[in-house]
Amino acid sequence: MADICLRNARIWTGVAAAPWAEAALVRRGRFEAVGSASGIDAPRGIETIDAGGRLVVPGMIDGHAHLLGTGAAMRSVDLKRTADAGEAVRRVAARVAASPGGSWIRGAGWDQNDWPGARFPHRRDLDAVAPDQPVYLVHTSGHCSWVNRAALRAANITRETAAPRGGAIDVDDDGEPTGILRDAASKLVTDVAPNPDQGERIGALRDAIAHAHSLGVTGAHAMDVGRGELQALYALRDSGALPLRVRAFLSASRLDEWVARGQATGDGDDMLRTGGVKFFADGALGSLTAWMYEPYDGATGTGFPLQPVDELEAQVRRSLEHGLAPAIHAIGDRANHEVLDLLERTRDMAPALRRRVEHAQLLRDDDVPRFAALSVAASMQPIHATQDMAKVDRSWGARGAGAYVFASLLRSGATLAFGSDTPVETMDPVAGIHAAVTRRNAAGAPPGGWRAEQRITVEAALRAYTSGCADVAGDGLAGRIAPGCYGDFVVLSEDLFALDDPMRMLEARVELTVVAGEIVFAAAPFARG
């Protein structure tokens, strides 16, 4: 923690009663004073930062991040923005050539929806460049994997292998596995792949945290945290090397372990705290495993639940009984409806624990007002809207009017908590704000905005990235620039509120990121005194 005085700034405080200020003073890691330039007196010897009239906002919070996965993806084969399966294979081949024989090749970010014909790839494509080394490539959604024959062999997956519950193993016309494993079936391979050690986990987390700071992210709700990631986070915190406020939502696969350890929501300190438990109701749109009422357009399947609803409910009840708040992944309209029903049946259990639905991607009209009525937060990722709009139009058709309904949820009184789902999409909150405000992609398409009736204001989007995330985690000291709150703030190169063209938001860059009064990222030297 440090002391710092911020001057010559256009500060959006996130406080409704006093939304704008010109200067702020941070003492011992918290805001001590916020107000006019003449109203802030910095004690002698305190460092002063001149913001040069730039926009300053509260430290932004990623409400749905996979921190360890982000760091690991930064160290694996990057398959995002590949034009076709051939380009993805060439990137894998380059990593194979630079890797020791027999080592596993990992990659992430491929998406068949971006390739000609939107067809899923085949293991043969990978076998040609990696006949002996196991290759494991995660779909951009995180709900599907593409593997080669060596990986199938390592996991003992054959034409006789039955898919585990909540998963599917794609097979070709001859009944042989194609190398596409959906949802729980991917675990057959990850269970036999070598796990990173503690040093590798800590290194990956450090990479992810540095990346977050460069994007103005000062806090993250880390999702689906397992034992190894939690231990690495504790190690960083205990050594004073965790400059990111992490709220850990623990993996439901280890619910018994968390309960036995007495882990509960709110445990921890300002930097690392237990948020709750992350559950899964269904899969994802990109892998066609999101649970729907009606079949996907042009297909016969409706996706599937990852476990029976009664079993999910039993787990959620156990979580609530032991003081752990539930955060439930739901993508499809059927999954969201079933989850809201479940949360309604359990609404009287531990009412102080905040419930949240992760993604809330496709909602029927009747389910929109239930979020506010049940005090359930909608934890959403606006960047998904502009990245997935073509997939929605292709796979959900007219039902897509209920996809990413930010404005409808806000009008109904629901709390929005925005995030990125990194490494599925970029962690950059400015890109997310742009998506929520314009409903256009980086190329400006479509010109009027996709499903433009769901656009929201800059202020509403910023609030969802700051106080919205803080409040759903019971973290009232975060997400605002106000006396007593954490001394976390970000200086941006562009004033998001004053741009003549909202597309110019994508030009905004983070100039400075401060956590508890400490500068953790600076794009260039600032005038200091």
Structure description:
With 529 residues, the chain is an alpha/beta fold. Among the domains are: 4-59 and 485-528, Urease, subunit C, domain 1, CATH 2.30.40.10; 76-190, Diaminopimelate Epimerase, Chain A, domain 1 (Roll), CATH 3.10.310.70. An eight-stranded parallel sheet has the order 8-15-16-17-18-19-20-21. Strands 3-2-7-22-23-24 form a six-stranded mixed sheet, with helices on one face. Strand 15 (217-225), helix 7 and strand 16 form a beta-alpha-beta unit. The longest helix has 17 residues, at 198-214.
- The residue-averaged pLDDT reads 95
Distance from N terminus to C terminus (CA atoms, Å) equals 19 Å
Tell me the Rg in angstroms: 23 Å
Sheet with the most strands: spatial strand order: 8-15-16-17-18-19-20-21
The share of residues in extended strands comes to: 15-25%
Main CATH class of the domain at 76-190: Alpha Beta
Q: Quickly give the CATH architecture of the domain at 76-190.
A: Roll
Uncertain spans, ≥5 residues at pLDDT below 50?
none
DSSP E strands, number: 25
Outline, from the CA principal axes?
globular
**Biggest sheet architecture:** 8 strands, parallel
Write the layout of secondary structure elements.
Blueprint: E1 4-7, E2 10-12, E3 20-21, E4 23-27, E5 30-35, E6 48-50, E7 55-58, E8 60-65, H1 67-74, E9 77-78, H2 85-97, E10 105-110, H3 123-127, E11 135-139, E12 144-147, H4 149-154, E13 167-171, E14 177-183, H5 187-190, H6 198-214, E15 217-225, H7 227-238, E16 245-251, H8 255-260, E17 272-280, H9 309-321, E18 326-330, H10 333-345, E19 355-359, H11 370-373, E20 376-380, H12 382-395, H13 406-411, E21 416-418, H14 429-438, H15 458-465, H16 467-472, E22 489-492, E23 510-515, E24 518-522, E25 527-528
Parallel strand pairs: 1-6, 2-7, 8-15, 9-10, 10-11, 15-16, 16-17, 17-18, 18-19, 19-20, 20-21
Antiparallel strand pairs: 1-4, 2-3, 4-5, 6-25, 7-22, 11-12, 12-14, 13-14, 22-23, 23-24
Helix pairs in contact: 1-6, 6-7, 12-14, 14-15
